[in-house]
Amino acid sequence: MIEIRDLQLLSALARHRHFAKAAEECGISQPAFSMRIRNLEDRLGVSIVRRANRFQGLTEEGEMIVQRARRILDDTKALEQQVLAAKGEITGTLILGVIPTAIAFTGRLTKRLRDAHPRIVTRIETMSATAIQHRLDEGSLDAGITYGDSIGTDLRQVQPLYEETYVLLVPSHMTDETGPIPWARVAEFPLSLLEPQMQNRRILDRIFAEQGLHPDIVAETSGFTASMVMAREGLAATVIPRVLVRALGDLKDTKVLPLVDPVVSKPICLATLTRDPELPTVGALRDVVASLR
């Protein structure tokens, strides 16, 4: 009999494509992890993993088994949550993938969800819009908060959340300006921006390119925290979502300047897989989102 635990290990290996990282996520040693995968192969009578000195990928049979395993794990999770929901309580862990620009909004959304359903634990993972779409499709995320124009609606439910707009966070000593400034002026400041593979960075690069601008980028980060600290320390300016400024309040020794010419906005949405039946935790999140409108 195949154990659910073995399917969880296999799903983690397919996601990380690395034995040590998958073993760490699953909370067991790498030798024990490898032995369980080997035992699963022996039990099924097929090779699941292509091996050399390191993980080389899954075999064709392995890919098929992983797809089945993910469906079984998804059904198991749904069954556990539905049994508890039938008793009048929605409980469980909700895995939520979030683009960096939406972290502040997600914090407020999580509080609303917690107020309505105190037994739901929300696990927030920051990642790119591309990663959110991929992990939704493979079933390792329950929901994603991402750009509405970067997520397909095929087999997914999409709920609009808000329009993302942008401001310049600049050290006070770098400018005397107090009102809206054009993007052309932004390009003149030393800038700290997100890494090039992030959707937010691609949006900014497109704005600069369309205007023939060549911004002075002095640092690239995987999140906004480092860029905001650099602005506080007077080292560089950064472009951040207005919603983040609203969440954090006054930032000492900096100025927040709205950006114009052009005024840019991007739709942010909640994306979930279309499931029948729906996970109770996901249904609870969607209800909270619907109550915001």
UniProtKB/TrEMBL annotation:
Taxonomic superkingdom: Bacteria
GO cellular component: cytosol
Any GO MF annotation of the entry: DNA binding
Family recorded in the similarity comment: Belongs to the LysR transcriptional regulatory family.
Keywords of this entry: DNA-binding, Transcription, Transcription regulation
InterPro entries named in the record: HTH-type_LysR_regulators, LysR_HTH_N, LysR_subst-bd, WH-like_DNA-bd_sf, WH_DNA-bd_sf
Biological source species: Ruegeria conchae
Residue span(s) of domain HTH lysR-type: 2-59
Keyword check for DNA-binding: yes
Parts of the chain that traverse the membrane: none
Protein's recorded name: LysR family transcriptional regulator
Presence of the UniProt keyword Transcription in the record: yes
Coiled coil segments of this chain: none
